[in-house]
Write a sequence for this structure.
């Protein structure tokens, strides 16, 4: 039995893919050969790994039987086209696109529902959920026994980096133009993003919900194994480069013991609880970190059955790439 | 009976006071003599009114019997020191500080509870609520008959201008420093405000609630005449210069008819409803406007008894100064 496995990362040139490769190296994941893949437009460039530049090749031409595990971090279309081809060739899949059906590729956040992994048989497909789902699941999981949870209400203030490098450049460019009193010409965003808030991320459906909002509700219910949990959600775009933030209200059917909540958050894996009176910020705390920061833990204003929290996490790292690597670490014994 | 009244504006050099003077001029409010007042630090400067620069004098030395109405826009301490002195001298008071007790100075938003004004006898004291209360009350008022309202959950993303000119300069300065890769030195804010979100505006109490959050709950219950309405609130500071935004979820005991909600919002005074699929932004819509912009009107994701809204309004203008002037317009017949 080999002590390392051969791996493919699809979407290696994107923000999540590149961070994923970096985390695999940082955590010394036992990789034999690493294959970096991307769509034809991005192939040809290279990504650093263990002091070398690894050439990125076209996913279309890749023979998945050469690897035991593939991370899909290139978006829904690529996952829908190639994930089955991978498993047909005996290669297991960790998918970050949200495109694979839950029946085939269950959504898993190690801190919340790692037990689901025990049921997988290789070559398996497993989904690493959206950054919002991951962040919320990490924090809700240790609280479920302490609440008779009736409803989650949340406003997610998302960083522009979730939309890729172009969005990051555009926020910087717009900001510089405004500070220099030059006329603003929105390109990537359809209006002024600098010093502004956009109340909708992506196109809404007939009912007014965006794909992100529906994905969060669907995934969170699945990860928390609460298929009919009421979740009120609004995702907005904030003029922040990296790090998502969440204003969360949990309604319980009975009074909530804050001391127990704080103790549970203090003990739980994947969480850094900031001290009472203080609060974490995306820029000052979350960015580059492996944990979800939690602060402003409090009841409602005269409502003891309400729990309010403020969460912030690195959307690219903790929200996406690290969760996928954590899944791989839990699954590797089945793949070696 | 005179066709004009003499007026004092206290806090005339602040962002709200200056806007208030501007709105009095724009709306041709029938003013005999306008007295501009401020604390000793700000006295001596001047503020433009009808083509002239009006000198700002010290409030300590002012004889309130010279005016029939005084707007207090200088903060809680000044209102607590001088509002009674004004009414004792026969001068009615419109207070924007939130410091006067509700029994003496009821909170009023013309679009929501103008009927309260009928009970006032001069010299009266009336409160113009916080920008958040004003904005929410304008929008909730026309919906109350269409909902069996159980709870309001909201995250308010506040502009830095609510904290005055220093906060505005600091956001600009911090942003320029970061774009020029110079070391960041927070002064007004205790940490990086540019490209960041601060989850707490002001110091929290023992329970973790800020004054702003408690004020909003208290005032909104009063204006809506719903003393035990459940209101979940988090106020955060966004890197936005002007214009507050609100992500709002309303829970009703029964199914909500969206067509009726939209029709009511369309007809209501003080509201601009943007078309379905679009959304308003603070910078692009609200700033400088006399209405609250409403968008993203939708049910919950598979919850028809939930109503979600996105609101944005000019916090200085619609949220504060204009509301006070609207109150004066409704009350002037009693003062002439």
């Amino acid at each position: 039995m080999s002590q390392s496995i051969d791996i493919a990362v699809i979407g290696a040139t994107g923000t999540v893919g590149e961070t994923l490769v970096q985390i695999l190296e940082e955590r010394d994941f036992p990789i034999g050969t690493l294959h970096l893949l991307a769509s034809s437009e991005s192939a040809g460039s290279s990504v650093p790994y263990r002091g070398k530049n690894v050439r990125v090749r076209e996913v279309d031409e890749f023979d998945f039987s050469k690897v035991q595990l593939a991370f899909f971090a290139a978006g829904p279309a690529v996952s829908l086209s190639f994930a089955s081809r991978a498993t047909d060739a005996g290669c297991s899949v960790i998918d970050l696109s949200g495109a694979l059906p839950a029946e085939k590729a269950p959504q898993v956040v190690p801190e919340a529902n790692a037990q689901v992994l025990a049921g997988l048989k290789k070559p398996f497909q497993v989904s690493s959920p959206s950054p919002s789902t991951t962040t919320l699941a990490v924090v809700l999981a240790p609280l479920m026994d302490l609440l008779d949870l009736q409803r989650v209400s949340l406003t997610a203030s998302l960083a522009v980096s979730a939309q890729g490098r172009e969005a990051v450049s555009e926020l910087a460019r717009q900001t510089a133009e405004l500070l220099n009193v030059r006329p603003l010409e929105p390109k990537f965003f359809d209006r002024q993003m600098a010093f502004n808030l956009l109340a909708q991320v992506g196109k809404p459906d007939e009912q007014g919900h965006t794909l992100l909002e529906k994905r969060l509700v669907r995934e969170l219910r699945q990860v928390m194994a609460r298929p009919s949990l009421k979740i009120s959600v609004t995702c907005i775009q904030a003029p922040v480069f990296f790090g998502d933030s969440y204003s969360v209200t949990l309604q319980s059917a009975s009074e909530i013991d804050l001391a127990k909540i704080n103790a549970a958050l203090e003990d739980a894996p994947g969480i850094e609880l900031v001290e009472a009176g203080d609060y974490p910020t995306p820029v000052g705390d979350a960015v580059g970190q492996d944990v979800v920061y939690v602060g402003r833990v409090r009841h409602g204003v005269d409502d003891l059955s309400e729990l309010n929290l403020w969460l912030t996490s690195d959307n690219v790292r903790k929200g996406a790439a690290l969760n996928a690597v954590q899944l791989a670490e839990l699954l590797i014994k089945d793949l070696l």
